[in-house]
Design brief:
By secondary structure, the protein is of the alpha/beta class. The chain is about 40% helix and about 15% strand. It is built from 19 helices and 13 strands. The strands form two sheets. Strands 2, 3, 4, 7, 8, 9, 10, 11, 12 and 13 form a ten-stranded mixed beta sheet that branches. Strand 5 and strand 6 form a beta hairpin.
Length: about 475
């Protein structure tokens, strides 16, 4: 899930994308248990107005924000750092005369649990990383503001348009809980495989479009003392990027929706799921994993990949910014879609793409008008460009980066991949809807990559996680058509 790493996601610097993690990406193994999370998100849910700073509304001030006042901002300081948020706060304070309090941290649950419990949460939060307070838990406790008012407000760049109409289609979907958008996944993320343009050129390798071609490169790499695939072993969210991509590309959007919709044959009984997990296990069986990768954190594994110790690594598009200090100047970082299994329903160019890094406004925020205006400002081209400059990534704002901004090679390659994919993009929602299920599948993947279970058992465990989630009456509120 996004969701998102950078001495990253969490407790010991965990994997960022709880976005999926992060989108999404995304619940790592170190995520607290659900009972703990339920406790940490308790604290009542009446939607306190919090409108202590409400003044007169106007076209330029749709939420009636008064000049002055305080704004409390907490952001996950992971793969994207937090310089972008400091730049936003400075711009906001200058315009509105506010005084922003900034917290950049990886300890989201540790720092915010007591505040949610006590009814005095921050005004706006980037709720991401391994210590993310799970969005489904916050929603069930009535602690998240419905963001419809922000999304239906006039866009700063074009007041004739609503904010929601200036965003890349589909990017609001991961923020849905019970049919309401309660989190804004701000960063436009693509997930897939990454490689070094320099290494590929030296070895004469071409970008593999089929799984057989991918395995051939892994085999050649192994023969030269290089790992085929690196993954962030301690945080199996990342290998699930490969597994879930293969399922969606092999079985098409129906296979993806079956998982999100908690189908009784989402995994057991799904030919796409079986072929995908057997393909991933083939890498393990043939010894194509980078040696030691199963025991490494995200940054340890990614750094070894930067040292040319593996041909490929799975990750989302926060990778480049997260690895800035470890990446050689001539590395030429590149992104590519997951190669296709035989007879895949989606083309090679299809990629998992969508929004990551969930920003929320707590229902009991002390300065709701400022929080709403801050989020509206995030969706302006000015702030979107600030983000691209500070964090080397794109946002969900359509054409949100000014033409003069020079992108790094990895980020540029994601732009090109997105254009090549066109409408052939997909994105899972189960990670945000059913965090306990997501964690259970990741745990099974960890066992598989370490050869402690076989593909058949992985399918069985993944299906059991789906079936358990389906028993929750709340799950009936989430559905993909």
């Amino acid at each position: 899930m996004g969701s998102t790493s950078g001495e990253n996601s969490g407790t010991e610097g965990v994997g960022r994308r709880d976005l999926i993690k992060r989108s999404a990406a995304l619940g790592l193994i170190t995520v607290p248990t659900m009972s703990f999370l339920s406790a940490c998100a308790s604290g009542g849910g009446d939607e306190d107005s919090g409108d202590k700073g409400t003044g007169k509304t106007s076209k330029d001030n749709p939420f009636g924000l008064k000049k002055g006042g305080k704004l409390d901002v907490v952001v996950f300081k992971g793969g994207y750092g937090d310089d972008y948020a400091k730049a936003w706060e400075a711009a906001f304070d200058k315009k509105w005369g506010t005084t922003s309090a900034h917290t950049g941290t990886q300890e989201i649950t540790g720092k915010l649990q007591p505040r949610f419990n006590g009814g005095n949460p921050p005004d706006i939060v980037d709720d991401s990383g391994a210590q993310q307070i799970k969005l489904d838990v916050l929603y069930k406790n009535g602690q998240l503001l419905d963001l419809a008012e922000v999304l239906d407000a006039p866009s700063i760049d074009d007041p004739a348009k609503k904010v929601r109409d200036t965003l890349i289609p589909g990017t609001l979907d991961p923020g849905l809980q019970g049919g309401k958008v309660v989190s804004l996944n701000y960063i436009y993320t693509v997930w897939g495989l990454w490689y070094s343009g320099k290494l590929f050129k030296e070895k004469g390798w071409e970008v593999p479009k089929t799984w057989d071609d991918f395995l051939a490169i892994c085999k050649d790499a192994k023969s030269q003392g290089i790992g085929g695939l690196a993954h962030q072993g301690k945080y199996p969210y990342y290998i699930n990027v490969a597994i879930m991509d293969l399922i969606a590309k092999k079985g098409g959007l129906d296979a993806m929706k079956a998982i999100d919709n908690l189908d009784p044959k989402a995994f057991v009984g799904s030919d796409a799921a079986q072929e995908a997990i057997e393909a991933i296990y083939e890498i393990v069986e043939k010894g194509y994993l980078m040696p030691g990768t199963n025991g490494l954190t995200h940054t340890e594994s990614q750094t070894r990949w930067n040292q040319y110790k593996a041909a490929f690594i799975t990750c989302g598009s926060w990778l480049e910014n997260e690895q800035l200090k470890q990446t050689p100047d001539d590395f030429d970082m590149k992104f590519m879609p997951m190669p296709n299994l035989p007879d895949s329903k989606l083309p090679f160019e299809a990629i998992r793409a969508g929004s990551g890094e969930p920003f929320i406004i707590p229902a009991k925020a002390g300065n709701l008008p400022a929080a709403k205006e801050f989020m509206r400002s995030m969706l302006s081209k000015e702030w979107s460009t600030l983000f691209a400059q500070k964090a080397n990534s794109l946002t969900i704002v359509k054409d949100g980066v000014n033409a003069g901004v020079q992108l790094r090679p990895g980020t540029q390659s994601t732009v090109e991949a997105s254009k090549a994919a066109g409408d052939n993009t997909f994105n899972y929602l189960y990670i945000n809807w059913y965090s306990e299920m997501g964690t259970a599948i990741e745990t099974a993947s960890n066992e598989l990559m370490s050869k402690r279970i076989q593909p058949k058992e992985w399918l069985k465990r993944a299906q059991a996680a789906v079936d358990k989630a389906a028993k929750d009456p709340e799950s009936k509120k989430n559905h993909r058509d």
